[in-house]
Design goal:
Oligomer: single chain
Shape: globular
Distance between the termini: 58 Å
Strand content: 25-35%
Number of helices: 3
Strand order of the largest sheet: 1-2-6-5-4-3
Structural class: alpha+beta
Largest sheet: 6 strands, antiparallel
Order of helices and strands: EEHEEEEHH
Length: 111
């Protein structure tokens, strides 16, 4: 078995492709920097292990972050994110979730 057969054995510093053009691995420090700069947004405050970054969803693992490349999984996450943005609750959280999903706030006041 090749040492590059597992994502954790590959490069982690620049989210470089690893075979499939959509497959990506990123280091913790790089994702932390993206989070601090506002480029990476958690799915929800209590779900910090799943973030939206550069138009894709990323999940944390022991050695860094993996880009979710499965279309069905990505669609399920988008559906859940959509439900969260429609749920009543903290408006700051809702705006953050909209931003994580790449959606803009309509600017309309609540009911």
């Amino acid at each position: 078995m090749s040492s590059k057969s597992r994502p954790e054995d590959g490069p982690h510093d620049d989210a470089a492709p690893t075979g499939d053009s959509r497959a990506r691995v990123m280091s913790h420090w790089k994702m932390n920097a993206a989070y601090l700069s506002g480029q990476a947004v958690p799915f929800a405050q209590s779900v910090s292990w799943l973030v939206r970054y550069r138009g894709s969803w990323w999940v944390v693992f022991e050695h860094g972050w993996l880009c979710i490349t499965d279309d069905l999984v990505e669609a399920d996450i988008e559906t859940c994110a959509s439900r969260l943005t429609k749920a009543p609750g903290d408006s700051t959280h809702e705006v953050g979730t909209r931003a994580a999903c790449g959606k803009r706030d309509s600017g309309k006041a609540g009911p």
